[in-house]
Amino acid sequence: MTAYAKVIRSKNSGPFELTFDIMFDADAPYLHVKKSGVINVESVARAFSIAPAQVLVCTPFDAARAFKITIKRPVSSGDLQDRDVYGCQQHVPLTRIQVPA
Question: What positions does the domain DUF4387 occupy (predicted)?
Answer without folding.
Answer: 4-97
